[in-house]
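ok, trying the design again with the full structure, not the truncated one.
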């Protein structure tokens, strides 16, 4: 089964769109997401456009703030502090990667945790790793949603996650563990990756290395979630971490690139923005 995220994401977004008028009626305004883009990297530009388009579709307010590549870390921090204080802003997202002169962890930690729609803030991640309530990082949240929608049973399964970043690998491993999978995390220092990946009943790959996973590295019937995105320098086309054409015949379920995990990430972002909005409105009401 080729597991596309497009249809599921469209259904979830339609559900959010249906809820927005009720939220407006209840709270007097709609959720407001602010996206900050530093520089004009084409891939980041396209991600930012996608976020604006999805916001428009579901009916939340989106403000994209574009700043030149020379923007200093201090200037960016000052903008974030201003948005943190702005009562009419519910979600703040700084598009990554940032130029080299800006320290990403410093910026991510400066965003108010209650407006951290990406779920990257250290406090949100700490809560996730402790299995406490938090804003879930968008891509891992979308992956679990996709698996459940495809009726893939996770409980008791051997899952292998390739990649250990705090954006995808580590949070997705934690969420799979929460669903009672037994999880192995592989990374760039893993010796004999194929030996590990062949044990997987569920394989999630998030490295950014095109076609890292070949057919000899998977077992028959494996569920494959390909998170990686890179561009083929010859064709300019997007490719995943998995050699799709050769792995697909062995897999019971596999996600394509593009059109697999990507749409779920954006739809989780919309959900997180609404969640931040509702949490803030409830907080205001109670105090
Ligand atoms: P990252 O660079 O922070 O982490 C990559 C991870 O892969 C590291 O933990 C590293 O140890 C591991 N790795 C690298 N080479 C490896 C190898 N040869 N063998 C085993 N492990 C290896 O990247 P990230 O932010 O986690 O993103 C990973 C990929 O997922 C990228 O291609 C990114 O563009 C993509 N991504 C896609 C979405 C989406 O919505 N589809 C969202 C986020 C990230």
């Amino acid at each position: 089964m080729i597991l596309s995220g497009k249809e599921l994401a469209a259904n979830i977004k339609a559900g959010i769109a249906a809820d927005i008028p009720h939220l407006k009626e209840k709270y007097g305004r709609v959720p407001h997401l602010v996206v900050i883009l530093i520089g004009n990297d084409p891939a980041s530009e396209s991600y930012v456009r996608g976020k604006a388009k999805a916001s428009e579709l579901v009916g939340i307010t989106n403000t994209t703030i574009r700043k030149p590549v020379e923007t200093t870390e201090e200037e960016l921090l000052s903008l974030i502090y201003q948005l943190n204080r702005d009562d009419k802003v519910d979600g703040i997202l700084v598009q990554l990667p940032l130029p080299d002169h800006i320290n990403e962890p410093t910026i991510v930690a400066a965003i108010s945790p209650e407006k951290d729609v990406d779920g990257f803030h250290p406090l949100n991640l700490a809560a996730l790793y402790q299995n406490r309530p938090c804003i879930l990082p968008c891509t891992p949240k979308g992956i679990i949603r996709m698996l459940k929608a495809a009726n893939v049973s996770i409980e008791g399964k051997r899952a292998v996650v390739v990649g250990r970043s705090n954006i995808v690998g580590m949070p997705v491993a934690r969420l799979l563990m929460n669903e009672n999978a037994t999880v192995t995390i592989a990374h760039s220092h893993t010796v004999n990756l194929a030996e590990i990946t062949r044990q997987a009943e569920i394989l999630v790959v998030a490295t950014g290395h095109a076609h890292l996973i070949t057919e000899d590295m998977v077992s028959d019937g494996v569920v494959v979630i390909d998170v990686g995105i890179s561009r083929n320098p010859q064709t300019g086309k997007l490719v995943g971490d998995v050699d799709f054409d050769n792995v697909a015949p062995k897999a019971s379920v596999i996600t394509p690139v593009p059109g697999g995990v990507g749409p779920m990430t954006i739809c989780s972002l919309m959900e997180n923005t609404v969640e931040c909005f509702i949490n803030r409105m409830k907080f205001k009401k109670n105090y």
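Keeping the full-length input from now on. Residues 261-286 form the longest helix (26 residues).
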